[in-house]
Write a structure and sequence with these properties.
Number of strands: 10
Order of helices and strands: HEHEHEHEHHEHEHEHHEHEHEHHH
Structural class: alpha/beta
Distance between the termini: 68 Å
Shape: globular
Largest sheet: 8 strands, parallel, barrel
Protein backbone atom coordinates (compact mmCIF):
# COMPACT_ATOMS: atom_id res chain seq x y z
CA UNK A 1 0.00 0.00 0.00
CA UNK A 2 1.03 3.59 -0.48
CA UNK A 3 0.76 4.29 3.24
CA UNK A 4 2.95 2.21 5.54
CA UNK A 5 1.31 0.47 8.50
CA UNK A 6 1.86 1.92 11.94
CA UNK A 7 4.47 0.37 14.16
CA UNK A 8 3.33 -2.81 15.92
CA UNK A 9 2.50 -2.38 19.57
CA UNK A 10 5.16 -4.85 20.73
CA UNK A 11 8.02 -2.93 19.11
CA UNK A 12 10.08 -0.40 21.02
CA UNK A 13 8.78 3.09 20.41
CA UNK A 14 11.12 6.04 20.96
CA UNK A 15 10.12 8.48 23.64
CA UNK A 16 8.05 11.34 22.35
CA UNK A 17 9.81 14.63 21.80
CA UNK A 18 6.53 16.52 21.71
CA UNK A 19 6.37 18.50 24.96
CA UNK A 20 2.58 18.78 24.84
CA UNK A 21 2.21 15.03 24.38
CA UNK A 22 4.59 14.28 27.25
CA UNK A 23 2.74 16.68 29.53
CA UNK A 24 -0.62 15.20 28.53
CA UNK A 25 0.55 11.64 29.27
CA UNK A 26 1.93 12.71 32.64
CA UNK A 27 -1.36 14.36 33.58
CA UNK A 28 -3.38 11.33 32.54
CA UNK A 29 -1.10 8.97 34.45
CA UNK A 30 -1.55 11.12 37.57
CA UNK A 31 -5.34 10.74 37.54
CA UNK A 32 -5.62 7.15 36.31
CA UNK A 33 -7.40 4.73 38.67
CA UNK A 34 -4.79 2.37 40.11
CA UNK A 35 -5.50 -1.22 41.08
CA UNK A 36 -4.62 -2.51 44.53
CA UNK A 37 -2.34 -5.12 43.01
CA UNK A 38 -0.31 -2.39 41.34
CA UNK A 39 -0.03 -0.52 44.61
CA UNK A 40 1.14 -3.64 46.38
CA UNK A 41 3.67 -4.41 43.66
CA UNK A 42 5.02 -0.88 43.92
CA UNK A 43 5.42 -1.19 47.67
CA UNK A 44 4.18 2.34 48.22
CA UNK A 45 0.43 2.71 48.92
CA UNK A 46 0.55 6.38 47.98
CA UNK A 47 2.31 6.08 44.62
CA UNK A 48 0.96 4.80 41.30
CA UNK A 49 2.73 1.98 39.52
CA UNK A 50 5.34 2.92 36.96
CA UNK A 51 3.77 3.44 33.54
CA UNK A 52 5.47 2.23 30.40
CA UNK A 53 4.52 3.09 26.86
CA UNK A 54 2.63 0.33 25.09
CA UNK A 55 1.04 -2.71 26.66
CA UNK A 56 1.55 -4.88 29.71
CA UNK A 57 3.44 -8.14 29.14
CA UNK A 58 1.25 -10.07 31.58
CA UNK A 59 -2.23 -9.85 33.00
CA UNK A 60 -2.85 -9.88 36.74
CA UNK A 61 -4.04 -13.37 37.64
CA UNK A 62 -5.70 -12.52 40.92
CA UNK A 63 -8.81 -10.40 41.45
CA UNK A 64 -8.15 -6.70 41.80
CA UNK A 65 -10.02 -3.76 43.22
CA UNK A 66 -9.80 -0.41 41.50
CA UNK A 67 -8.85 2.50 43.75
CA UNK A 68 -10.35 5.54 41.98
CA UNK A 69 -8.43 8.80 41.92
CA UNK A 70 -10.67 11.80 42.66
CA UNK A 71 -9.79 13.37 39.29
CA UNK A 72 -10.24 10.20 37.24
CA UNK A 73 -13.89 10.91 36.43
CA UNK A 74 -12.91 14.16 34.71
CA UNK A 75 -11.48 12.05 31.89
CA UNK A 76 -13.65 10.91 29.02
CA UNK A 77 -14.84 7.28 29.06
CA UNK A 78 -12.61 6.56 26.05
CA UNK A 79 -9.54 7.99 27.78
CA UNK A 80 -10.28 6.05 30.99
CA UNK A 81 -10.58 2.80 29.07
CA UNK A 82 -7.47 3.52 27.01
CA UNK A 83 -5.38 4.04 30.11
CA UNK A 84 -6.80 1.02 31.90
CA UNK A 85 -5.54 -1.03 28.97
CA UNK A 86 -2.15 0.66 28.87
CA UNK A 87 -1.29 1.30 32.49
CA UNK A 88 -2.99 -1.51 34.42
CA UNK A 89 -3.00 -5.22 33.80
CA UNK A 90 -6.52 -5.93 35.04
CA UNK A 91 -9.09 -7.99 33.15
CA UNK A 92 -12.02 -5.70 32.28
CA UNK A 93 -15.26 -7.69 32.58
CA UNK A 94 -18.30 -6.25 30.78
CA UNK A 95 -21.94 -7.40 30.92
CA UNK A 96 -23.92 -7.25 27.71
CA UNK A 97 -26.56 -4.50 27.69
CA UNK A 98 -29.02 -3.56 24.97
CA UNK A 99 -31.30 -0.77 26.27
CA UNK A 100 -31.57 1.81 29.03
CA UNK A 101 -32.97 -0.52 31.68
CA UNK A 102 -30.40 -3.27 31.16
CA UNK A 103 -27.62 -0.66 31.28
CA UNK A 104 -29.01 0.87 34.49
CA UNK A 105 -29.22 -2.56 36.12
CA UNK A 106 -25.62 -3.33 35.13
CA UNK A 107 -24.49 0.00 36.59
CA UNK A 108 -26.37 -0.70 39.82
CA UNK A 109 -24.52 -4.03 40.06
CA UNK A 110 -21.23 -2.12 40.09
CA UNK A 111 -19.98 -2.46 36.51
CA UNK A 112 -18.04 0.53 35.17
CA UNK A 113 -17.55 -0.82 31.65
CA UNK A 114 -20.52 -2.07 29.62
CA UNK A 115 -20.87 -3.81 26.27
CA UNK A 116 -23.66 -2.85 23.88
CA UNK A 117 -24.47 -6.05 22.04
CA UNK A 118 -25.59 -5.80 18.44
CA UNK A 119 -27.72 -8.92 18.76
CA UNK A 120 -29.42 -7.55 21.87
CA UNK A 121 -29.90 -4.11 20.34
CA UNK A 122 -31.48 -5.61 17.23
CA UNK A 123 -33.80 -7.85 19.25
CA UNK A 124 -34.75 -5.12 21.72
CA UNK A 125 -35.20 -2.12 19.45
CA UNK A 126 -36.40 -3.88 16.28
CA UNK A 127 -37.71 -7.24 17.47
CA UNK A 128 -35.62 -8.92 14.78
CA UNK A 129 -32.90 -11.58 14.58
CA UNK A 130 -29.25 -10.52 14.31
CA UNK A 131 -28.88 -10.73 10.52
CA UNK A 132 -27.35 -7.33 9.86
CA UNK A 133 -30.78 -5.72 9.95
CA UNK A 134 -29.97 -2.93 12.41
CA UNK A 135 -28.84 0.18 10.57
CA UNK A 136 -26.07 2.58 11.49
CA UNK A 137 -28.67 5.03 12.79
CA UNK A 138 -30.24 2.32 14.96
CA UNK A 139 -26.89 1.45 16.54
CA UNK A 140 -25.69 5.04 16.99
CA UNK A 141 -28.98 6.05 18.61
CA UNK A 142 -28.84 3.15 21.07
CA UNK A 143 -25.17 3.69 21.89
CA UNK A 144 -25.70 7.41 22.44
CA UNK A 145 -28.52 6.76 24.89
CA UNK A 146 -26.65 4.09 26.88
CA UNK A 147 -23.32 5.93 27.00
CA UNK A 148 -24.93 9.11 28.35
CA UNK A 149 -27.48 7.78 30.84
CA UNK A 150 -25.96 9.64 33.77
CA UNK A 151 -23.23 12.11 34.63
CA UNK A 152 -20.76 9.30 35.36
CA UNK A 153 -20.78 8.15 31.71
CA UNK A 154 -19.95 4.46 31.87
CA UNK A 155 -17.22 3.22 29.57
CA UNK A 156 -19.28 1.72 26.74
CA UNK A 157 -17.85 -0.76 24.25
CA UNK A 158 -20.21 -0.92 21.29
CA UNK A 159 -20.74 -3.24 18.36
CA UNK A 160 -20.18 -1.52 15.00
CA UNK A 161 -20.80 -4.62 12.85
CA UNK A 162 -19.06 -4.17 9.47
CA UNK A 163 -19.01 -0.38 9.64
CA UNK A 164 -22.17 -0.25 7.47
CA UNK A 165 -20.44 0.44 4.16
CA UNK A 166 -17.19 1.47 2.53
CA UNK A 167 -14.41 3.71 3.90
CA UNK A 168 -16.43 6.94 3.62
CA UNK A 169 -19.37 5.43 5.51
CA UNK A 170 -17.04 3.92 8.11
CA UNK A 171 -15.41 7.32 8.62
CA UNK A 172 -18.82 8.88 9.29
CA UNK A 173 -19.86 6.03 11.59
CA UNK A 174 -16.72 6.29 13.72
CA UNK A 175 -17.24 10.02 14.11
CA UNK A 176 -20.83 9.43 15.19
CA UNK A 177 -19.66 6.93 17.82
CA UNK A 178 -17.08 9.45 19.05
CA UNK A 179 -19.75 12.14 19.40
CA UNK A 180 -21.96 9.63 21.22
CA UNK A 181 -19.29 9.27 23.93
CA UNK A 182 -18.59 5.61 23.12
CA UNK A 183 -15.32 4.38 24.67
CA UNK A 184 -14.54 1.60 22.17
CA UNK A 185 -16.06 -0.25 19.25
CA UNK A 186 -15.35 -3.40 17.29
CA UNK A 187 -15.53 -3.63 13.51
CA UNK A 188 -15.48 -7.00 11.77
CA UNK A 189 -14.64 -8.80 8.53
CA UNK A 190 -18.01 -10.40 7.77
CA UNK A 191 -19.77 -9.57 4.51
CA UNK A 192 -22.42 -6.84 4.66
CA UNK A 193 -25.19 -9.48 4.79
CA UNK A 194 -23.73 -10.60 8.12
CA UNK A 195 -25.17 -12.60 10.98
CA UNK A 196 -24.57 -13.20 14.66
CA UNK A 197 -21.09 -14.57 15.25
CA UNK A 198 -22.54 -17.72 16.82
CA UNK A 199 -24.69 -18.77 13.86
CA UNK A 200 -23.51 -21.15 11.15
CA UNK A 201 -22.76 -20.19 7.57
CA UNK A 202 -20.75 -17.02 8.19
CA UNK A 203 -18.84 -15.54 5.25
CA UNK A 204 -16.00 -13.05 5.47
CA UNK A 205 -14.55 -10.51 3.07
CA UNK A 206 -10.97 -10.69 1.81
CA UNK A 207 -8.19 -9.60 4.10
CA UNK A 208 -7.61 -6.53 1.91
CA UNK A 209 -11.21 -5.39 2.38
CA UNK A 210 -11.02 -6.08 6.12
CA UNK A 211 -7.85 -4.00 6.41
CA UNK A 212 -9.44 -1.17 4.43
CA UNK A 213 -12.13 -1.07 7.12
CA UNK A 214 -9.48 -0.94 9.85
CA UNK A 215 -7.56 1.79 8.04
CA UNK A 216 -10.71 3.87 7.53
CA UNK A 217 -11.61 3.56 11.20
CA UNK A 218 -8.07 4.38 12.34
CA UNK A 219 -7.95 7.39 10.05
CA UNK A 220 -11.22 8.73 11.43
CA UNK A 221 -9.99 8.38 15.01
CA UNK A 222 -6.66 10.05 14.28
CA UNK A 223 -8.27 12.92 12.38
CA UNK A 224 -10.63 13.51 15.31
CA UNK A 225 -7.74 13.31 17.82
CA UNK A 226 -9.93 10.93 19.82
CA UNK A 227 -9.10 8.24 22.38
CA UNK A 228 -11.90 5.87 21.35
CA UNK A 229 -10.42 2.37 21.18
CA UNK A 230 -10.48 0.47 17.89
CA UNK A 231 -11.13 -3.26 18.27
CA UNK A 232 -10.43 -5.38 15.19
CA UNK A 233 -12.72 -8.40 15.06
CA UNK A 234 -12.33 -11.38 12.76
CA UNK A 235 -15.02 -14.02 12.18
CA UNK A 236 -12.82 -16.01 9.79
CA UNK A 237 -12.31 -19.01 12.09
CA UNK A 238 -15.49 -20.75 10.98
CA UNK A 239 -14.80 -20.39 7.23
CA UNK A 240 -11.01 -20.09 6.86
CA UNK A 241 -9.52 -21.42 10.10
CA UNK A 242 -7.42 -20.24 13.01
CA UNK A 243 -4.20 -19.39 11.13
CA UNK A 244 -6.04 -16.98 8.84
CA UNK A 245 -7.52 -15.29 11.90
CA UNK A 246 -4.06 -14.71 13.37
CA UNK A 247 -2.80 -13.37 10.04
CA UNK A 248 -5.68 -10.92 9.86
CA UNK A 249 -5.36 -9.76 13.45
CA UNK A 250 -1.61 -9.19 13.14
CA UNK A 251 -2.19 -7.09 10.05
CA UNK A 252 -4.97 -5.14 11.78
CA UNK A 253 -2.66 -4.52 14.72
CA UNK A 254 0.01 -3.21 12.35
CA UNK A 255 -2.52 -0.83 10.84
CA UNK A 256 -3.31 0.65 14.25
CA UNK A 257 -6.04 -1.44 15.90
CA UNK A 258 -5.82 -1.06 19.67
CA UNK A 259 -7.34 -4.44 20.60
CA UNK A 260 -8.03 -7.72 18.82
CA UNK A 261 -11.09 -9.97 18.89
CA UNK A 262 -11.10 -13.48 17.44
CA UNK A 263 -14.75 -14.49 17.35
CA UNK A 264 -15.73 -18.15 17.65
CA UNK A 265 -12.87 -19.98 19.36
CA UNK A 266 -13.24 -23.73 18.86
CA UNK A 267 -11.52 -24.70 22.12
CA UNK A 268 -10.02 -23.26 25.28
CA UNK A 269 -6.59 -24.26 24.01
CA UNK A 270 -7.15 -22.19 20.86
CA UNK A 271 -8.10 -19.16 22.95
CA UNK A 272 -4.99 -19.45 25.14
CA UNK A 273 -2.82 -19.92 22.05
CA UNK A 274 -4.15 -16.75 20.43
CA UNK A 275 -3.27 -14.66 23.49
CA UNK A 276 0.30 -15.99 23.46
CA UNK A 277 0.78 -15.54 19.71
CA UNK A 278 -0.43 -11.94 19.77
CA UNK A 279 1.05 -10.86 23.12
CA UNK A 280 1.46 -8.24 24.41
CA UNK A 281 -1.30 -6.83 22.19
CA UNK A 282 -4.58 -6.81 24.18
CA UNK A 283 -7.25 -9.33 23.20
CA UNK A 284 -10.97 -9.25 23.91
CA UNK A 285 -12.85 -12.48 24.63
CA UNK A 286 -16.54 -12.73 23.73
CA UNK A 287 -18.53 -15.25 25.78
CA UNK A 288 -21.92 -16.38 24.48
CA UNK A 289 -23.37 -19.13 26.64
CA UNK A 290 -24.87 -21.98 24.60
CA UNK A 291 -23.18 -20.58 21.48
CA UNK A 292 -20.52 -22.07 19.22
CA UNK A 293 -17.57 -21.56 21.58
CA UNK A 294 -16.65 -23.28 24.86
CA UNK A 295 -17.56 -21.56 28.11
CA UNK A 296 -14.54 -19.83 29.63
CA UNK A 297 -14.81 -18.41 33.14
CA UNK A 298 -13.52 -15.02 34.24
CA UNK A 299 -10.72 -16.65 36.20
CA UNK A 300 -9.71 -18.82 33.24
CA UNK A 301 -9.68 -15.79 30.93
CA UNK A 302 -7.60 -13.88 33.46
CA UNK A 303 -5.06 -16.69 33.64
CA UNK A 304 -4.90 -16.93 29.84
CA UNK A 305 -4.09 -13.23 29.62
CA UNK A 306 -7.17 -11.69 28.01
CA UNK A 307 -7.61 -7.97 28.75
CA UNK A 308 -11.34 -7.49 28.06
CA UNK A 309 -14.13 -10.02 28.49
CA UNK A 310 -17.68 -9.40 27.31
CA UNK A 311 -20.73 -11.51 28.15
CA UNK A 312 -22.98 -10.59 25.24
CA UNK A 313 -26.10 -12.45 26.40
CA UNK A 314 -25.70 -11.75 30.14
CA UNK A 315 -28.77 -9.49 30.09
CA UNK A 316 -30.70 -10.65 27.05
CA UNK A 317 -31.04 -14.36 27.86
CA UNK A 318 -32.11 -13.93 31.53
CA UNK A 319 -34.56 -11.19 30.51
CA UNK A 320 -36.07 -13.53 27.92
CA UNK A 321 -36.44 -16.35 30.43
CA UNK A 322 -37.94 -14.14 33.15
CA UNK A 323 -40.41 -12.36 30.87
CA UNK A 324 -41.45 -15.56 29.13
CA UNK A 325 -42.16 -17.21 32.50
CA UNK A 326 -44.18 -14.21 33.73
CA UNK A 327 -46.19 -13.90 30.50
CA UNK A 328 -46.96 -17.63 30.42
CA UNK A 329 -48.03 -17.52 34.08
CA UNK A 330 -50.32 -14.60 33.30
CA UNK A 331 -51.78 -16.44 30.31
CA UNK A 332 -52.32 -19.72 32.14
CA UNK A 333 -53.05 -18.64 35.72
CA UNK A 334 -54.20 -15.03 35.47
CA UNK A 335 -51.31 -13.70 37.61
CA UNK A 336 -47.73 -12.70 36.89
CA UNK A 337 -46.08 -13.95 40.07
CA UNK A 338 -44.57 -10.54 40.76
CA UNK A 339 -46.70 -9.81 43.84
CA UNK A 340 -44.72 -10.44 47.00
CA UNK A 341 -41.30 -10.03 45.38
CA UNK A 342 -40.97 -6.42 46.52
CA UNK A 343 -40.31 -5.28 42.96
CA UNK A 344 -42.65 -2.39 42.19
CA UNK A 345 -42.52 1.01 40.49
CA UNK A 346 -40.26 2.63 43.14
CA UNK A 347 -37.65 -0.11 42.92
CA UNK A 348 -37.47 0.08 39.13
CA UNK A 349 -37.53 3.87 39.04
CA UNK A 350 -34.76 4.09 41.67
CA UNK A 351 -32.58 1.95 39.40
CA UNK A 352 -33.45 4.32 36.56
CA UNK A 353 -32.25 7.46 38.33
CA UNK A 354 -35.31 8.60 40.30
CA UNK A 355 -33.28 9.90 43.26
CA UNK A 356 -30.90 11.79 40.99
CA UNK A 357 -33.80 13.39 39.12
CA UNK A 358 -35.43 14.53 42.37
CA UNK A 359 -32.13 15.99 43.55
CA UNK A 360 -31.71 17.94 40.31
CA UNK A 361 -35.20 19.39 40.70
CA UNK A 362 -34.68 20.34 44.35
CA UNK A 363 -31.26 21.91 43.71
CA UNK A 364 -32.91 24.15 41.13
CA UNK A 365 -35.56 25.23 43.64
CA UNK A 366 -38.28 22.91 42.41
CA UNK A 367 -40.80 21.23 44.72
CA UNK A 368 -42.76 19.14 42.20
CA UNK A 369 -41.35 15.76 43.26
CA UNK A 370 -40.96 16.09 47.04
CA UNK A 371 -44.17 14.18 47.61
CA UNK A 372 -42.71 11.10 45.90
CA UNK A 373 -40.55 10.44 48.94
CA UNK A 374 -43.48 10.50 51.39
Amino acid sequence: PAVQPVQAKDEVVPASTDAAEVQSKAKLQDVLPISTTQLQAKGDPKSPADATEGYQDTVQTSPTTVVPHPLAQSLSPATRLKHKLRYTNDLIVCPGVYDGLSARIAQSAGFETLYMTGAGSTASTLGMADLGIASRNDMVRNADMIANLDSHHSELIADMDTGYGGPVTINQTVNQYIRANVAAFHIEDQVLTKRCGHLSGKKVVTNDVFLSRIRAARGAIDNAHADIQLIARTDANQQLGYDECITRLKAARDWGADVGLLEGFKSKEEAARAVKELAPWPLLLNIVENGHSPLITVEEAREMGFRIMIFSFAGLAPAYMAMKAAYEKLKNEGITGIQGTGVGPRVLFDVCGLQEAIKVDENAGGEDYKSIMS
